[in-house]
Structures are given as C-alpha cells and as structure tokens.
Amino acid sequence: MGARRDFMRSSASTAGGILLGPAAWPAIFGYGRKFHPEIGVCTDLSKSDLLRGFGYSFIEAGVRKFLVPSESEENFLKNLEQTRKASLPVKVLNSFLPEGFKCVGPVTDSTAILKFAGTAFKRAQVAGIPVIVFGSGRARQIPEGFPREEAQKQFEKLCREMASLAGQHNVTVLLEPLNTEECNFINSVAEGGEFVKKVNHPNFLLLADLYHMKKVEESPESIIRYGHLLRHVHMAEKEGRSAPGTMHEDFTEYFRALKKIGYKGLISIECRWQDMEKQLPVAIQTILTQMEAATEPFRDGEFRRNGLYKRTFNPKG
Questions:
Q1: How many helices (H) and strands (E) does the chain have?
Q2: In the predicted model, what is the mean pLDDT of the chain?
Q3: pTM, whole model, 2 decimals?
Q4: DSSP alpha helices (H): ranges in the chain?
Q5: Picking from 26-40, 108-122, 220-234, which range would have the lowest pLDDT averaged per residue?
C-alpha cells in the first residue's frame, strides 16, 4: 500500500519536468476548489480606502446618488471623476427608481420611468458598470384593491421594455425579490425567477438577497433551481439587518448552494452598520469562514479524474 501511495505521489507530482507537491494538486486535477467570490459593500465612494484596507474588492453605489439621472450631465461627470480617484471600483448599482415612480396600478409612470432608466443606462455604460439592481419596493408596490394579475402584466411589459433599453447600453437589470414587509409583489427568489423567465430577455436577470430569503424563510434550494438566472447576491443577517458576524447567523447552506451552481458573480453586504470600522473586518472574516465551511471536502486517499482521482463528498461538508 505504501509503495502504491509513493507511486501516485511521484506520478502526480511531476509535470513538464517540474516537481509539484500536494498543495499544487487542486490546480492540476481541479478537485477541492474553494468558493470565494469577490466581496463588496453597498456604500458610497468615501468609504473606499476603509473597505480596501480590510480586504473588500468593490463598492455597490446608488443609481440616484452616483448616476444622478434626474440631474445634469455635468453633475454626473463630477461623480465619475471621483471614481477614478477612488481606491476601489464601483461594480454594481442599486437604489434604482424613486418612490414616486409607479410601475403598477391604476396610474403608472412608465414613460417617465423609461426616460429615467435610459439616462441611467447610458451613464452606467460610460462609467463601465454593467449591472443595475432593481429592487425599488415602493415603486412596484401593488396598490390596495388593484388586481394582482393586471399588475403582473403591467410590470412584465415595463420590464421587457426596460431590458431592451438596457441592452442598447450593455447593461443588465437584475430583479431583486424583497420580503413581504418591504413590498407586496415578488417576495422570493422563486417568484423572481418565474417572473424573469416570463420577461425572457438576456438583459433582465435575477438577484438573490440572503437577508430577504431568510426573512421569508426561503430555502437555499431556490438558488439551485434558479441559479441559471442569478447574476448577483446581497446579504445581511436577518436579525436587525445586521452586518455578518453581529448576531452570528449562519449562511453556510446558502453559500453551499451558490457553490453548487458554480456561481461566478459578486456578493455585496447590504446591511445596517452600527460601527462600520469595527464591523467591517468581522463581517468579511465571517463570510470567508462560512464560505470555507461550504466547500465540499474530499477524503484523504480518494482520487478522481483520469483514473487517478475518485471524488467522494462528505455530505456534512
């Protein structure tokens, strides 16, 4: 048995005349890969140096504050100049539609919404930001007594027109399902996934917010089921919408689901900070630790691929 093990080590450790130890085996054979998407924070550019110092990779800024679609091009260009001086890039935008823009109901603002959105998409393209999150719960709230089926049709038409407009500027709009305390329409990843399928446009996809999923007690299974539509992830703890690590909530099974679908997107913390400077290092360490726990390990001595490594999973992770 010892001789066989030595042979396997010798065979696997030599590539192109270079001796490679066991630490290099995952890179060669592809097993045991880690799950570590880039982690950012929903905040403004003034926090970029602070975030970078703690290992965060990007900022998720607000459409209305950064792109200022209702304001002049000059004001937008001033904001754009700030991004070029910042130590972290803005990679995603949220806080899309103002509360006064009504997407559904007896009186809608679709013309104004599309004009606003068109300016936002154009400026996002100039800034090199390819993703805009569409939460905007108050804008898409169904008025009391208004038929849900009619609201569904109104919103579907609007989102299809919006997606077409976004596509002209190489921007993708991501629908964010919100919990029932924040909106009465599209409250789960499952509902969001079905709606995105109806819109059926490559520039209109899905976001999963782990905070909202926990609030409505939605299983990580929805991530697996609709993973092919998923482009971005938000997170915060359920209790108090706290920063990860504050109440010691566990996201491991959600990370495991994301790993299972081969998620390649980003993860943004969208929470209520009590003391941002003190909580930032705790939050990122909590996330990385739980991501590590979500990695499916392989038992020592088991091999797979090319007749050398056979994969065996520990179901308890």
A1: 11, 10
A2: 87
A3: 0.83
A4: 2-12, 25-29, 48-53, 73-85, 110-127, 148-167, 189-199, 210-215, 221-225, 252-260, 276-294
A5: 26-40
